[in-house]
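Hello forum,

I keep getting stuck at the same step: I have a sequence, I want structure tokens, and every attempt I make locally crashes halfway through. Rather than fight my setup again tonight, could one of you with a working pipeline run this one for me? It's a single chain of 188 residues.
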Amino acid sequence: MSDQTLNKKRIAFLATDGFEQVELTKPWDAIKSAGAEVVLVSPKDGKIQGMNHDEKADQFTVDQNVSNVSAEDFDGLVLPGGVANPDTLRTCETSVSFIRDFFKQHKPVAAICHGPWTLIEADVVRGRRVTSWPSLKTDLKNAGAEWVDEECVCDEGLVTSRNPDDLPAFCDKAIEEFAEGKHAAQTV
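Reply #2:
Ran it on my machine without issues. Output:
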């Protein structure tokens, strides 16, 4: 998409070391091309390390520390995967609260691959239809979600996908949900 459907929207990308690089860069580029301001938020200052599967990739400069921002500052949230990234984020209460606040404010959230691990910690998947990397299936079901093996799932403003192969559908649906704005059923 290269239109301006997200003009004047501000979208946070929450990540830390160990994120799957393409799961940040592809949505970042698509959402930015759709007219949004994109902001890299992290519990870590400076640079964070991207990964191409299990190999180090590029480092990215953090725009804002998660302790200095609020969900109120943004119109939506993207949660890239990678194994280490969401595993670290879910142990950071400030990051978990930041995620939970998007749901409290009914704002769209897009999580791919291992990204939904943080949604479990934020206790926002109960009764929701989601997908993820297959190894998260049991964790998501135990947290009360209905897990399905589909390319892209959207449940009232919550967009989830399984892996990098699903990025085209994930990006398109995330842009659509961010453009629609708040969803009354997107809540804790």
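The helical segments are 21-33, 84-89, 93-104, 116-121, 137-142, 167-180. If your local run keeps crashing, start a new thread with the error log.
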